[in-house]
Amino acid sequence: MGRTIVVTAGKGGVGKTTVTANLGALLTKLGNKVVVVDMDIGLRNLDVVMGLENRVVYNIMDVSDGKCKINQALVRDKTLPGLFLLPASQIHTKKDINIDKIVEIISIIENSFDYILLDSPAGIEKGFESASAPAKEALIVVTPDVSSVRDADRVIGILENRGILAISLIVNRYDINLVNRKKMLNADSVVDILGLDLIGMIPEDKSVIESTNKGELLVNYANGSPANKAFENISRRIEGEDVPFLNFNSQRRGIFSLFRRR
Ligand code: ADP
Ligand code: MG
Fold first, then answer.
1. Mean pLDDT value across the chain
2. Is residue 120 within 8 Å of 132, Cβ to Cβ?
3. Is the pLDDT of residue 95 over 90?
4. Quick one: pLDDT at residue 250?
5. What are phi and psi of 244, to 5 degrees?
6. In degrees, to the nearest 5, what angle opens at C-alpha 47 toward C-alphas 23 and 139?
7. Whole-angstrom Cα distance, residue 36 to residue 20?
8. Average pLDDT, stretch 27-40?
9. What is the CATH number of the domain that holds 247?
């Protein structure tokens, strides 16, 4: 029986789609069979981020409408044989969604996958509702700024009201230089404000934007990048491993010690 996890946030543009695609990839690398489900029709959809847009034939709404079987709508990833995408519809609007059907589809998928990651749209409307309705767990993505954290707080309240209590926090686009100059909230403050368990911090990393624009998963585009390392650690923690947190200050100290030696 697979674990169904919604990847959500209070607002758009904080990295939900990036997190869904790359965690999906790294959980697959750990030997799991994973499906990432696109519940959003956004600027950079999961199919585009994964470079699979040309392989999409059917989508989750077609399954819901009985136009195809689940297996026909699943798109296998180009590089990772255990990773699948269930695409979003480009023509339906959120009001067309039948939430009961979505819950039914996901419960069937749970029988043949280890992880089902649901990429949620921004906001707290019907799209978010249908992404969170089938989920038993949630990953909240925030960037370290006041508005993102405030909006996340609202979403956490809603998820808890729905009985999703296994909620973990991902702080994305963390920039230690900005934190040290007090231009960005530090991770401890974010954790204190939201009262969630921190499962990982992903650094601001230009290889993320580059890989997004190329339609490649980070694990293929920049395997050794700091962001990919962070995703790898998060996927291990999801699997229950006790992985120490990356030291975001070490690079900075490294530079200073270099100066001192001269
Ligand atoms: P959402 O799904 O929440 O709207 P996306 O995942 O589409 O957000 O990310 C929005 C933009 O931010 C994308 O261009 C993506 O490449 C960029 N981005 C996300 N995370 C990072 C990061 N850690 N470092 C640099 N850029 C990032
Ligand atoms: Mg998105």
1. 92
2. yes
3. no
4. 52
5. -65, 150
6. 30
7. 7
8. 97
9. 3.40.50.300
Q: Which atom of ligand 1 is nearest to the CA of 18?
A: 6
Label residue 75 by pLDDT band (50, 70, 90). Answer: very high
Indicate the top mutation candidate among 43, 208, 218, 246 to test ligand 1's pocket, ranked by most ligand atoms within 8 A of CB: 208
If pLDDT is split at 50, 70 and 90, which confidence band does 94 have?
confident
Residue 43 has a pLDDT of 73
| Ligand that comes closest to the CA of residue 49 | 1
In the block, tokens 């921190």 appear at: 198
Query: What HEC string does the chain produce?
Result: CCEEEEEECCCCCCCHHHHHHHHHHHHHHCCCCEEEEECCCCCCCHHHHCCCHHHCCCCHHHHHCCCCCHHHHCEECCCCCCEEEECCCCCCCHHHCCHHHHHHHHHHHCCCCCEEEEECCCCCCHHHHHHHCCCCEEEEEECCCHHHHHHHHHHHHHHHHCCCCEEEEEEEEECHHHHHCCCCCCHHHHHHHHCCEEEEEEECCHHHHHHHHHCCCHHHHCCCCHHHHHHHHHHHHHCCCCCCCCCCCHHHHHHHHHHHHC
Protein residue with its CA nearest to atom 16 in ligand 1: 209
Q: Between residues 248 and 61, which one has the greater pLDDT?
A: 61
Mutation choice for ligand 1 from 118, 209, 229, CB with most ligand atoms inside 8 A: 209
Global pTM reads 0.94
Mean predicted confidence (pLDDT) in 162-190: 93
**Residue 73's domain spans which residues?**
3-258
Q: How many domains does the chain have?
A: 1
